[in-house]
Amino acid sequence: MQITAGDAAAAPIPRVGVAQRLLPRWQLGGTDAVDVSSLQVIGQADRKYIMCQAGGVLVAIDQHAADERARLEGYFDDLCAMLVQLSRLSEGQPASAAEGVSVLMPAVPVALSRHDAAAVGRVAAGLRQLGIQLAPKAADTGAQGEGDRCVLHMVCAPTALVPRLVGREGRSEGFAVELLLAAAEWLASGAQGSTYAASRSCAADEGLAGAWPALAALPGVVVDTVRSMACRGAITFNESLSLSECRAVVDRLAQCQFPWFCAHGRRSTAPIAPLAWPESIGHSHK
C-alpha cells in the first residue's frame, strides 16, 4: 500500500501522542528530531498544519508554532545585536545611537510613586545599557507630578519592545510601568554585572554562541515580553495558507537555531507516518 502526497494532505492528522506510539513500530529512525531544511512542502491540512515529506516520511508542522518560533528568534537576534552595540557606546552617547534602540516620539509617560521614581533614577545608567533611556529630569525626584505621584518620560527603548510601548492595545501605559520597575529592580539586585560577564564567557564558547547567551544580560521582563509578542503576532490556527505561504513558513523555520519548539517549548514539528508502508505491516493486514 502506498500513501500519495495528495492522500497525505487530505488525511486527518494523528495526535502527536498517537504518532509517538506508532513511530517505533514503523521504524522511522529512532528519533523525531526533524531536519527542517530537508523538508519538501506538500501543502496545508485542516488550516492548522503544514504537511511535508522528507526521506519517505510524512511530517506535520504546527503552523502557529513554526511562525512563532521564527518570530521569537528574530527578536532574540535583534536584542543580542542591540546589547553589543550598547556596550560599545561612549559615556556621552545616547542609547538611541545604538542599532536596535528607537527614539519614542512622543515620549512615553510613566506614572510612578516618588519612591519608585527615585529608585529608577538611581539605576538610570544601567537602564541605558538595556536600551531604556528617560528624559534627563527623571533622574531626580523632582519629576513632573503632584503629591506622592510623578510622571517620568521614557524617550528611548529597544526597538523590539516599541509595539508594546506605543501600541493601541490599551496596555501600553501599564506595560511601560511594568518594564521600568522590573528592569530597575533587576539592576538594583546587581544581576546585570554577573549575568553579562557570564554571557560574554558563553559567547566565547563555539557550542553556545548561537544560543543567544547575551540574553542573560537582560531582565526577564524583556525576554518574557518578546515571547508573548511572538505568540500574538504569529499565524494562527484556522488561517488559510497558500502553497507559497506554507513554503515561506518552512523556509523561515529552517533558518532557526531551535526549529523543533515554539516560544513556550511545545513541539512545532512531528513525523507522522511513512509514505510507503513497511512490508511487515502490509503482510499483517492480509
Task: Give a written overview of the molecule.
The structure is a single chain. The protein has eleven helices and seven strands. The protein is of the alpha+beta class and 286 residues long. The chain folds into two domains: 5-69 and 234-284, MutL, C-terminal domain, dimerisation subdomain (formyl-coa transferase, domain 3, 2-Layer Sandwich), CATH 3.30.1540; 90-231, no CATH class. The strands form two sheets. It has a four-stranded antiparallel sheet with strand order 1-2-3-7. α3 packs across α10. Residues 41-241 form the MutL C-terminal dimerisation domain. Pfam families: MutL_C (PF08676). GO terms for molecular function: ATP binding; ATP hydrolysis activity; ATP-dependent DNA damage sensor activity.
Q: How would you sum up the major sheet?
A: 4 strands, antiparallel
Please tell me how large the radius of gyration is: 24 Å
What is the element string, with H for helices and E for strands? Answer: HHEEEHEHHEEHHHHHEH
Beta content comes to 15-25%
Total domain modules: 2
Global shape: elongated
Which regions are unreliable across 5 or more consecutive residues at pLDDT < 50?
A: 1-31, 138-142, 204-209
Helix amount: 40-55%
What separation lies between the terminal Cα atoms? 11 Å
Arrangement of strands in the largest sheet: 1-2-3-7
Helix count from the secondary structure assignment: 11
What integer is the average pLDDT? 81
Got a strand count? Answer: 7
Q: Structural class, from helix and strand content?
A: alpha+beta
